[in-house]
Amino acid sequence: MARITLDKLGHSYMENPVADADWALKQVDITWDDGGAYALLGPSGCGKTTLLNIISGLLRPSQGRVLFDDDDVTALSPDQRHIAQVFQFPVVYDTMTVYENLAFPLRNRGVDSATTDKRVREIAEFIDMTHRLDDRAKGLTADGKQKISLGRGLVRTDVNVIMFDEPLTVIDPHLKWELRSKLKELHQRVGRTMIYVTHDQTEALTFADKVVVMNEGEVVQIGTPVDLFERPQHTFVGHFIGSPGMNVLPCTVDGGKVYLGGNQIAVANDAAQGGGTAEIGVRPEFVSFADNGLPATVVKVSDAGRHKIVETRCADQTLRMLISEGVEIPADGVKLAFDTANTRLYTDGWLAGSRSAGGEGR
Ligand SMILES: Nc1ncnc2c1ncn2[C@@H]1O[C@H](COP(=O)(O)OP(=O)(O)OP(=O)(O)O)[C@@H](O)[C@H]1O
User: Fold this and answer.
1) Which residues share a beta bridge with 319?
2) Which positions make up the signal peptide (predicted)?
């Protein structure tokens, strides 16, 4: 097991990258603590797989270093790094039995047969495959094959980190929840470092203690699920996480005060640090009806379980609110209030005042 440090990592698939957009990974600096449960979350194409392949050694970065504890492993092969990786699609040997598939990573490393047998049976129990141990993998469903891939990733006890790259993509929806909670449980049991890559916020937030959010080749925030919800460092995080996401409302800043359509809005952070494009970020959960407030018009109301999503127009912008089922929607003359502690100013996308020179606050 090891602490993993990514030091000024950058990667471009081009020979001579020039523009910012030529880099699949811009500068990435992250330390993954030994034993942590992490999710790497971001939209398609943001660089998640590139980052994972650099950690596992399948890809050599154009810039920067990968350290396991204090050892520079940037030039080492995947095999030398002692990493287990579970991919999006099953990697199983069809002609082998389930048992042989699970035993393969151990036999390959010369683990004795008694230890292998014990470990294979433990993992088979965990993935609910004990009854299929003697069957050929060929006859399994896609779900079954992916369970075997998961099992093969979990079977070794000598790995530094287990990495899952969208491992539940081919899994039937009803099984997804079950496997996700099992992985979480397994992490709590074995305390091994796990990195779980996904573009699905539910998967990330349920699995991880810490979530690394990426966008366009950059890490925009590393935090607990609560941090990401309550204190988004970037409008991307606010918008990407939550359902519906945070309202991001272009505004003006004058003399350290924030205005939306001519109305002054109180914000929780320091508006004096403004500059660049200015936006107010407020989650739909923190907007309510008020006697005095911003004039708005209700456009649409939709049911969302025990809540309602109310879409309004306010200061010529679309603004969503999430209200409890029982809350009455005023017939007309609607006024809105924002909860100040959860209303923030963002400049050029970043939380105003959160970044000093050198990108602190990410
Ligand atoms: N082998 C490659 N050659 C050239 N460009 C690549 C290659 N692999 C990825 N890219 C580009 O690098 C960027 C990051 O891709 P990457 O696959 O790491 O993103 P991702 O977040 O894992 O996406 P997804 O969720 O769709 O797998 C994208 O613009 C992608 O087109």
Assistant:
1) 312
2) none
Find the 21 Cα to ligand 1 centroid distance in Å.
12
Domain residue spans of the chain: 4-230, 245-351
| CATH architecture of the domain with range 4-230 | 3-Layer(aba) Sandwich (3.40)
Q: Which atom of ligand 1 is nearest to the CA of 88?
A: 27
Is 50's C-beta closer than 6 angstroms to any atom of ligand 1? yes
pLDDT in tens, 96-117: 999 999 999 999 999 999 999 9
With a 6 Å cutoff on the Cβ, whether 199 touches ligand 1 is yes
First to last CA, the chain: 26
Report whether the peptide linkage leading into residue 244 is cis, meaning its omega lies within 30 degrees of zero: yes
User: Which atom from ligand 1 is nearest to the alpha carbon of 199?
Assistant: 25
Question: Which 3 state secondary structure label does DSSP give 40?
Answer: strand
Of 360, 342, 346, nearest to 274 by C-alpha is 346
For 245-351, CATH number out of 2.40.50.140, 3.40.50.150, 3.40.1280.10, 1.25.40.10 equals 2.40.50.140
Locate 28 and state its tokens. Answer: 């990435």
In 229-333, beta strands by DSSP E? 247-250, 252-254, 257-260, 263-265, 278-282, 287-304, 307-314, 317-324
Q: How far is the CA of 23 from the centre of ligand 1 (A)?
A: 10
Which pLDDT belongs to residue 355? 67
User: What residues contact 98, with CB distance under 8 A and at least 6 apart?
Assistant: 124, 129, 132, 133, 134, 135, 136, 137, 140, 148
pLDDT at 191 over 90: no
Task: Kindly give the distance from the C-alpha atom of residue 13 to the centroid of ligand 1, in angstroms, as a whole number.
Answer: 9
Give the residue whose CA is nearest to atom 18 of ligand 1.
Answer: 47
Q: Model confidence over 260-310: pLDDT tens digits?
A: 988 999 999 987 765 678 999 999 999 999 998 999 999 999 998 889 999
Nearest CA to ligand 1 atom 20: 45
Q: In ligand 1, which atom is closest to the CA atom of 214?
A: 21
Taking the C-alpha atoms of residue 71 and residue 2, their distance in angstroms, rounded to an integer, is: 10
Which residues, including other chains, have CB under 8 Å from residue 15's CB and lie 6 or more apart?
A: none
Closest residue to atom 30 of ligand 1, CA basis: 45
